[in-house]
Design goal:
Structural class: mainly alpha
Largest sheet: 2 strands, antiparallel
Shape: globular
Helix content: 55-70%
Oligomer: single chain
Strand order of the largest sheet: 1-2
Strand content: under 5%
């Protein structure tokens, strides 16, 4: 069930057993199609909606559509509202956004890209951003010397060589 909270955001109440503790309403996660946000969105959506045995697929599809914005919403916009389309929609999103190579490279891009030297305030923001990307890579088990070295080497390749190398690996 979706309901509006005071600030107008969407909140969810999942039906539960009468003997269970009633937790406060939880806001469903949103996803715009940013690869780095995909693992977090997937985990939260699975925990609240996808794996909820009390929901039927037509409801799951409604919840999924309500959580998507931008590019992510566009990837499934042509699917109808039939319950059978939920599995298709979920599969499309997983195949497009559950790409470890892209996710890892996006984190490393943010950490290692050269840019304008920031001011003190901007540098503080950069440190916070760098810390979140580092944490995300560590959580994936990808904050290793090998991962960073392979990333740095791939940035030196022309696009044709990189494509051939990716096909081989």
């Amino acid at each position: 069930m979706l309901s509006n909270t005071e600030n107008g955001s969407k909140a969810q109440s999942i039906p539960c057993d009468e003997n269970e503790i009633q937790l406060p309403r939880m806001q469903l996660p949103t996803f715009s199609g940013t690869y780095e946000d995909s693992p977090g969105f997937t985990d939260q959506f699975k925990a609240t909606v996808h794996d909820n045995k009390q929901l039927i697929d037509s409801k799951r599809l409604t919840y999924l559509r309500s959580c998507l914005t931008g590019e992510a919403a566009k990837t499934i916009e042509t699917l109808g509202t039939a319950a059978s389309n939920y599995a298709i929609a979920w599969s499309i999103l997983e195949s497009r956004y559950d790409n470890p190579h892209i996710i890892i490279n996006r984190h490393l891009d943010a950490l290692l890209s050269k840019g304008i030297k920031p001011s003190y305030d901007e540098f503080t923001k950069y440190l916070n951003t760098a810390e979140s990307h580092t944490i995300a890579l560590k959580a994936r088990g990808e904050f290793t010397t090998d991962t960073i070295l392979l990333y740095l080497l791939s940035t030196k390749m022309d696009s044709v060589t990189e494509l051939k190398w990716r096909e081989k690996t």
